[in-house]
Amino acid sequence: MSYSREHATLRNELRDFYEQYAVCLDEEELERWPDFFVEDCRYRVTARENYDQKLPYGLIYCINKNMLKDRVLALRQTTMYEPRSLRHFVSGIRVRSVDADTVQSQANFAIFESLSDREPTVNMVGRYIDILVRTPGGFLFKDRDCICDNYRVRTSLIIPV
């Protein structure tokens, strides 16, 4: 896609959307997290090697919004983990293509984690590869791949990426 005023406006809209997503996770407003997705969405957290080899495996793999809601319910009611604070940083937002009300985009992410008794650490780095749909209320994810560049996940993967 060539650079234009329309392209710059779209990137700004995407940046706002990505930042709202990050704030939702950073502030642990997990019940709102599924609201960023359409009903028949796909959400996957996978290793870079799996993505590059087109393997379907994922550390987290959800194929609809109800599975996202179940994940939140499990986090709130059954999962035991050490309290932590996360900060998601998103950069390098790129529009890959636009077709009617669908946008394919890519962005880099870095997630820092702070536990009560340790210095903050880099939890995960990677990139998002997304397909978004524009709705009257704004963008929603149709398809989200969170591709981790980490050799391994340092601690348990609890909060969504």
Automatic annotation (TrEMBL):
- Pfam families in the record, alphabetically? Ring_hydroxyl_B
Q: Which InterPro entries match?
A: NTF2-like_dom_sf (IPR032710), Rng_hydr_dOase-bsu (IPR000391)
Q: Which UniProt keywords apply?
A: Dioxygenase, Oxidoreductase
Respond yes or no to whether keyword Oxidoreductase is given for this record: yes
Q: Which GO terms describe its molecular function?
A: dioxygenase activity
Family, similarity comment: Belongs to the bacterial ring-hydroxylating dioxygenase beta subunit family.
Q: Per its record, how is this protein called by name?
A: Aromatic-ring-hydroxylating dioxygenase subunit beta
Q: Specify the species.
A: Paraburkholderia fungorum
